[in-house]
Amino acid sequence: MSPAKKRTRTYDPARTRAAVLAQFGNVREAVGTLTPAQLALPTRLGGRTVGELVAHLGTALGAVGRFLDKPEPARPNATLLDWPFAASADAGSLADTARETAERHPDPGAFLADTERHFAQCLAGAPDARLLDTDAGAVPLADYLVTRTVELVVHTDDLNDAVPGLDIPYDRQALAACTRLLADALAVKAPGASTEVRVPPFAVVQCVEGPRHTRGTPPNVVETDPLTWIRLATGRTSWDSAIADAKVSASGERADLGALLPLMT
C-alpha cells in the first residue's frame, strides 16, 4: 500500500491579514523610538544596518501593492512552499534594494507609516484568491500574505538582536504562521516520515527518509521552541550551537538536522 499523501496546510486568510497588520504595526511603533545612532547599528545580516533592515521591511510589505498593480496571471504556477527556497536566491538583490530604499527615505518611521496605510488600502479591495505575479511565481494573495509573516517575524528577531532593549513583541498568529511555513518547508526539502519535528505549540511535521513511524513514540524526535526553530531555519543560529545550548532536544539516529539547515537565509 502506498503511503498516504500528506495534506497541504491551510491558513485562515482573515487571520493572516490581521497578523500581518499587527506585526507590521509592532515594528512601526518600535522604529519610531529609534535614534539615528541606533538606526546606524549593524545587524547580523552581513553588515546591513538597522535602518537598511527597516527599509527592507517596508519594501517587503509594499510588494503586495506592487503585485496587485500588475496584471493578474491567468493561472497559478507556484505554491506557497516554493517561496522559502526562491527567497534565498534573491538575498543579494534584496540587500541592494534595502540600501537604496534607506537612502531615499531618511525618515524610516514616516516610510513605514505610509507603507502601512497603502497596504491597508490595497487589501480592502483585494479578494483572497486574486493571483499575484510574484518573484516566486503566480500565487493567490492569501498565500503570499503568509510569506509576509515570515519576513516580519524573522526580521523582528533581527531588529531585537541588533538593538538591545528594543523588544518588539511578536503577534501570536504571525509567529504561528511563520513557524508552520518553515516547518512545512523542511518536510518539502527532506520528504519522509522517519523523523518527527515538534515546535510546540504551533507545528508538528514528519520528514526524512527511512522507516515510517505508525504508532507510539516516534524513534526519531526533534523538539524546540518557535524562535529557535525560526533561527535554525533561516541560518541565524547553527544546529550544533542550538544543541550545545540545550535549545533543541534530538533523539534517534535520524534526528540530526544539521545537514538540512538552514532552509533559507
Q: What does it look like?
A:
There is one protein chain. The termini are far apart. The protein has 10 helices and 6 strands; from the N terminus they run ααααααββααβββααβ. The protein is globular, with a radius of gyration of 19 Å. The protein is α+β, with helices and mostly antiparallel strands and 265 residues long. It has helices at 13-31, 36-39, 50-69, 83-89, 91-104, 108-124, 141-162, 172-189, 226-233, 239-244; strands at residues 131-134, 137-140, 195-199, 203-207, 221-224, 248-251.
| Total of DSSP H or I helical runs spanning 4+ residues | 10
What is the N-to-C succession of helices and strands? HHHHHHEEHHEEEHHE
Could you tell me the radius of gyration in angstroms?
A: 19 Å
Note the main sheet: 4 strands, mixed
Low-confidence stretches: none
Q: Roughly how many Å apart are the termini?
A: 38 Å
- Count of beta strands: 6
Shape: globular
